[in-house]
Amino acid sequence: MAAALLAGALALVPDVSRAAEPAPASASASALSTTAAGPASGSGPGSGSGSATLANGERLELIRGDAGEAAAPGFRVVPKTGHRSGRYAYATTGNKLSVQPVGEREPLPATTITTGAPRTSAPAPRAAAASYRVTIKLANADHIGPIIRVWNRSTWMSYDVAAEQYGSSGTIALPPGDYLTAGLYTSWQKPGHLLTKTFTVKDRGLTVTLDASLAKETALTADEPTARPYATAVWLSTPKGGMIGFAGGWGGATKVYVTPFTLPGVSLRIHSLLVKDGATANNPSPYRYDLFHGFDGAVPATPKVQVRTADLGRTVTTLRSAGQDTTGSLLSSPSVGDSSGAGISTPVRIPSTVTEYMTPGIAFTRMAFHDGGPRFDGVPRTLVKGANAGETFGGAAYAVQTHESAATLRGSRLSVYEPWGFGDAAGHRGSDSDAVQDFRLTSNGATVAEATNLSPRQSFSADLAQTQARYQLVHTVRHTGKPNRLTPRQTNEWAFTASGYGVDTRPRLTDVALRVDGLDIRNAAGTSPVTVHAHATSRTPYATAKVTGLEFSLDDGATWTALPFTAAEDRASAQLTVAQDTRFVSLRTTGEDDGGSTVRRTVIRAFAGPAPLTDENVGATRISDVAVNGRRVIAPATYDDPYAPPYTVRFTATDPSGIAATGAVLYRGAHDRPDAVIPVQVPQCTEVDATTSTCEAGFWLNARTQLGRNDLAGEWRLAVWAYAADGQGFTDLNTAGTALILRQTRVTIKAPTTPVTAGTLFTISGIAGINDWSTGRWNALAGKSVKLEYRKPGVSTYTTAATVTSDSTGTVKATVKAAHDANWRWLLPRTPGVGAAASPLAFVDVR
């Protein structure tokens, strides 16, 4: 699978790091190690995925295909909640993948993981008689922390270069031979550079200079005048799959300069996403250009390519919500057949539709992310020129997406691995980092093994009796994130016959997948009937399965009503008219195969009804003492400051059994149809006592990249929810608190700098400005009332001397009589949607 670097929640995909996970009944390991970062987390068989923490606190995730293939796995970087996509340099050396945050104010170290891919590199040769010192030097480079690699052009073995963290060069000892070197560098808010040069080592050391002044800007553009690059990946690929490159960035930070070269077997790859100018997470682009181009064997002197929209494939992608509007990201990764590549993403509102224009003939693997919620993985998709069929992510009903190797029986050891607990009706495998799952295996009423609160990436194992016996396996997946208002719980109940007598096989398990037609983009039913489809399959080759029952519930599974259905072979369907006062519909289906194995799958809140989503309280769970930003006004900036602390959300949650999980989200407008949303991190809760927890969560806010519309300034509402520890109670409050999010303002001041004579008149002026969320620029603030105030030396309070109205240029001016020494300032009071501001103090000396 092509390497996939997530660059956006993003938006890329803002995501949230989980707390430490409980020990599993059995957890499978992955070949993953880390350096310069936190500990890695394991993965299950077939996924080959693991994670590590980057030096900037974001999460690096390794993603491999189902078969666990060894060739260059993909990876993505998950930004912190509320942060836009960062910028990352990455490189492979054999089976090591290094990822380094770049473009930061301070140099940050790389995080290195072991991918398990075949080694195509050799360790750096030790200095010996046949090795010579080579210095790789950057010239004309304004940089922080270069990454340098060297390849032998005969064997394409790769070598790390010991680069100076703050310097401009690196050194390596190399034997005689022909080599290619590549260096990456960037600096704070400046473009990146990918520099290359060939050289030959003969019988002495040498210095190789990578000259940035020779690099040319590379880019992919379209003939759509309103389109601009949102995210870009550029990487160098060698014949043996080695790579080095950049991914990520936003706006002007996407620019990358490369050195033109001619070198057979070496390619420069460019993957670029274009969106409409001014698009943000809450004001997303109606279209998306997904472009790929490769310069194979030679990079021209002008490495820019413009494509015609008419030459691209066109499709419409629909992103449905899990019952709650949120922001998210759509990631794509090109598969170009050389075990290299990088994936990037653009922000999307969920739910929404987006028209996509894609380079035809290239297989793009795509993922759809809900901020703070589930992820849906698409299969590689190749478009042809012109119109193509659309694709929908997130259609109900959500349920476990299985594959044949998810359950295995090796000897007497049964292993079950079900990481795809949030798959959609179209068959896209999905996952939810905040989900937990329980397993219980019984036989003849006796418990064989059980495990609770496992993460989605942990497997369950148990030893079976050597004699043949009948087993019952119950698998429950629970979701507690607010974007997952649909399918908070699903249960699979299997019955099968097995023997643990020295056989390597698969247990005979039957599955039934559900799909509901006739729902809207929020997976809600309307006045017309919906059609429920069920499809039975068996995990045993050549076995046949059928659907044996369908039921629905309008009270979260307390009572069930049989749903008459028509069946044909392994499929069944039924129509259901949903009453107008229905909030949610749960579904239950049963199936069996020709070997006597059965399944009952229950999906609580499989889809929504027509009724609005009001507050909910079940049991004694309560929320109180809610405060956003300490109840202070929020006036966000229109730029990213990686060192800025997050805004906070705090509240208290109580239940007689204690609190298991909580969450929150900020929204503007109506709860069911918000104008905008701001994701909040998963709260960290501290127990006060057995029944009460105080919870705190953070969120970052860049008004330009997340909001992008001035009319979103004003009062926002905070929805908060909490689940009881015993699973019997929960509360979900649509408006638990409020927050004022206002536009930043500023006022300058100009006053006499030389002493003035008492009794004479003097003038104080200034200019009032306001931050424009749609552009990030400061505009004149006209027609606003501004106070001129003074404070005498030794006095703590201000006195108003004049009140004036700013003119069309934002200018304010007042003439006053000199009476005494004083510090003067302009004060702009808070008005609807506009924050308050005070100018700097200006001291006027009166004599």
Automatic annotation (TrEMBL):
Low complexity bias spans: 328-343
Top-level division of the source organism's lineage: Bacteria
Signal peptide positions on this chain: 1-19
Signal as UniProt keyword: yes
Region annotated Disordered, chain positions: 34-53, 323-344
Keyword field: Signal
Keyword Signal among record annotations: yes
Protein name: DNRLRE domain-containing protein
Biological source species: Streptomyces ficellus
